[in-house]
């Protein structure tokens, strides 16, 4: 695609898609300030790409006064959507929900509105859609956002540092109550199919056992760690598990409600692990899920700065006419890579990662060592699904 004409007043659109993450507003602010400094106009597409499906209701002009005071705010002033894929837009019909391809509508509205570029801020799913729209002719620049830190091509995504900080603080607070009651506490954190949050928060929060999707765990090995703590008179244990952690020979724990909407919604592994630890070891155990607490609140200084750098860099890519790319952090510089490279696969935790090595060296268990009763069978049963209570 050709570079925008020099000196021409461009119209750019911003979109935030997928789950919210601390730092989204900092990206919007930086991109808007940079664009206005160049004399451009900025518009916001609300609720993912809904503003390009129905511009009358979901498209707003963003002026400099609209971004005042949002640098430290969580969430996104544009709203977001987890189900905003125009290639698989769900409509209601008398026969039930039906998927239709509205990508052509998006492209036509983009051109009809006179936009010169779209800055898409999101994770693997959102940027995958962005890449498809780029191939259909929309000039797009991507910005990597996800608390899961599972995007290729960037050292870290904004939102991740805040999520880890929140999870670490929660684990810190659990230590005192676990020690007072001499209990085992099992904490479930987000991360989907990548264990970055569990690993970093678990090590930073002083966990005794960390369960991540990359390392299938043996529940007997988890129990062994709890017993070992009791033998050395520590009398309490902290287990941190990623929502996508999977027992050896078993399957991921899914919420029962996920079956109704055909979405694999993770959640409940902490409850299952806690129940099994208490049953097998006799140790009083409690479990809790941090859930969306990890997405909310003010972004950390690191995330504010990273989001600001990425947002400004995205506008500079538009200025240079370098579309179909994603801005990324390659410490210490902000660079850009092809969108196709960023979405090629998920970035999971390497088994030889230094943080794993350091954790093992300090005696932290990852639940992957054989337990003493492994020969008696796994005991996991045919299903780990749980019912969601309301």
On the 0-100 scale, what is the average pLDDT? 87
Using only C-alpha atoms, the radius of gyration works out to 23 Å
How many DSSP helices?
A: 12
Strand arrangement, major sheet: 3-2-1-6-7-12-13
Q: Say what the CATH topology of the largest domain is.
A: Rossmann fold
Structure description:
This protein is of the alpha/beta class and 390 residues long. Helix content is 34%, strand content 17%. The N and C termini lie far apart (51 Å).
Q: Can you lay out the helices and strands and say which pair or pack?
A:
Blueprint: E1 11-16, H1 24-37, E2 41-45, H2 50-53, H3 55-58, E3 59-61, E4 89-93, E5 96-100, H4 103-112, E6 117-122, H5 124-135, E7 140-144, H6 160-181, E8 184-189, H7 196-204, E9 209-211, H8 219-231, E10 237-242, H9 269-281, E11 285-289, H10 301-320, E12 325-330, E13 333-338, H11 339-342, H12 354-361
Parallel strand pairs: 1-2, 1-6, 6-7, 7-12, 8-10, 8-11, 9-10
Antiparallel strand pairs: 2-3, 4-5, 12-13
Helix pairs in contact: 1-10, 6-7, 8-9
Descriptive labels:
390 residues, alpha/beta, Rossmann fold, 2 domains, seven-stranded mixed sheet, four-stranded parallel sheet, 12 helices, 34% helix, disordered C terminus
């Amino acid at each position: 695609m050709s570079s925008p004409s020099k000196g021409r007043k461009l119209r750019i659109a911003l979109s935030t898609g997928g789950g919210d993450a601390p730092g989204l507003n900092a990206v919007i602010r930086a991109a808007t300030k940079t664009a206005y400094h160049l004399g451009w106009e900025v518009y916001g597409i609300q609720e993912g790409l809904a503003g390009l499906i129905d511009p009358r209701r979901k498209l707003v002009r963003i002026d400099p006064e609209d971004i005042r005071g949002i640098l430290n705010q969580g969430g996104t002033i544009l709203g977001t959507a987890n189900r905003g894929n125009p290639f698989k837009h769900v409509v209601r019909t008398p026969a039930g929900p039906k998927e239709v391809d509205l990508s052509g509508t998006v492209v036509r509205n983009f051109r009809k509105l006179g936009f010169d570029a779209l800055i898409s801020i999101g994770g693997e799913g959102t940027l995958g859609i962005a890449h498809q729209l780029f191939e259909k002719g929309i000039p797009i620049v991507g910005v990597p956002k996800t608390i899961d830190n599972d995007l290729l091509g960037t050292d870290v995504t904004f939102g991740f540092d805040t999520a880890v900080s929140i999870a670490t603080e929660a684990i810190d607070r659990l230590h005192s109550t676990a020690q007072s009651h001499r209990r085992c506490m099992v904490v479930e954190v987000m991360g989907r199919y990548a264990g970055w949050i569990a690993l970093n928060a678990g090590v930073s929060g002083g966990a005794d056992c960390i369960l991540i999707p990359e390392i299938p765990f043996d529940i007997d090995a988890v129990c062994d760690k709890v017993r070992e703590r009791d033998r050395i008179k520590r009398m309490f244990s902290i287990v941190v598990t990623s929502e996508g952690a999977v027992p050896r020979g078993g399957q991921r724990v899914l919420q029962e409600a996920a079956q109704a909407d055909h979405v694999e919604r993770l959640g409940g592994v902490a409850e299952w692990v806690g129940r099994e630890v208490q049953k097998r070891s006799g140790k009083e155990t409690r479990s809790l899920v941090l859930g969306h607490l990890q997405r909310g609140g003010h972004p950390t200084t690191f995330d504010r700065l990273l989001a600001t750098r990425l947002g400004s860099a995205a506008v500079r890519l538009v200025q240079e006419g370098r579309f179909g790319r994603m801005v990324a952090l390659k410490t210490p510089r902000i660079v850009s890579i092809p969108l196709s490279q960023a979405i090629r696969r998920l970035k999971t935790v390497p088994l030889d990662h230094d943080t794993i090595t350091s954790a093992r060296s300090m005696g932290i268990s990852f639940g992957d060592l054989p337990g003493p009763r492994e020969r008696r069978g796994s005991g996991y049963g045919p299903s780990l699904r749980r019912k969601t209570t309301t």
